[in-house]
Every structure is written in structure tokens, then in C-alpha cells.
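Hi, here's the filled form for the chain we discussed.

Project: internal
Contact: R.S.
Residues: 192
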Amino acid sequence: SETRFVIGFEDEGSGTYEGTAIIGNVAGTTITLGTSYKFDNTRTSYIDIAPLSDSKFVVAWYRNNDTTGYAVVLGVTGADTIGWLSTGEMNFGSGEVDNISVAALTSTKFILAYEDLDSTTNFGYMYMAEIDGTDTIQFKTQHVFNAEEGIDFVHVEKMSEKMFLLAFNDDADNSSTRLKVCEVDDFHDILV
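And the returned structure, exactly as it came back:
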């Protein structure tokens, strides 16, 4: 909302880089933070968050211990507190991933983009995902958005309920910045 936000980060203070989220409130020029919530008690990286509503958000991250990407729906469960809403986290990617970015298109649909480091090519991939009535994530069709080796700085941004902007750095083309307008059709396919 205009006065509330949520951030995700690796908690280096814990010494284990645990995946952590916290709610922030804005009053004028003052920011106050709620209680931090550990959504993953292992070493994490590449955390990104996208709000689905005023009380619900999706978080995606890379879990270093088992070299897999994960996503889960979390929610505001009380005054400035965060809790687990879904029945469990869902994994994505074929192994090690990085450069994760998420963008909500609606309160029940989001885009997830990332670089897959486990493949021999380091291609860029994205999913359109849906959230069901139990807040469980269902990944739909996977789409390759860059079939050349090496990308960085992946970012997706909502334009409308069916369109989004994809930006990334293309290492294979002299580190050129690429911008693509993408659309989700009625069959959950991503059109680039």
C-alpha cells in the first residue's frame, strides 16, 4: 500500500544468511519496522518479493544448501507480523539458479524469471504461476527467454494483468541490456 511495504533479505547477522522478511510502515518521513520473519533457516540468496494484495505476497529465493530455487506465499498475519500461508514451498529450476525476479500480475498470478545455472548453457527462463485457494503455487508453462549463454540482472515488472516488461543483461552480446514486452495468453503461455 502507500504506507506499508515488505522487504526480503539474507540475514548476515545470523552468520548463516537465513532468508528473512520484514514489514515496514511509512508515516511522513519516518519508517518503522515490524518483527522479522525467517522464511528459510538455511543459507539463501537472490531473494525477491512481489505483493499480491495488502495482506499477501510471494517470495522467491535460491536455497544454497540444496542448490534449488523456491517460491512460497507469505502473508501479514497480525500487526506487522508475517506468517506462512501456503501448504508449502514450491521449487523451480533444474538445479542452481540466480538472478531471480518476481512480479505479480493479479492477486493470484505472478511471473517468475531467473537464470538456470545448472544447465550447460545458463539460459534465462520464466514461468507464469497461479496461486490456488489454499495459497499453493502452481507453475504453468516454462518459457526460455534467452537461449544464449550467460545473463545477469534479470528483472520483471507488471504493465497490466496480462502484460509485463522483462529486462536483463545479455553477456553473450557484449553485456547489452535487453528489454522485452511480454504477454500471458488465456492458456498461460508467455508470448515474447
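Let me know if anything looks off before we file it.
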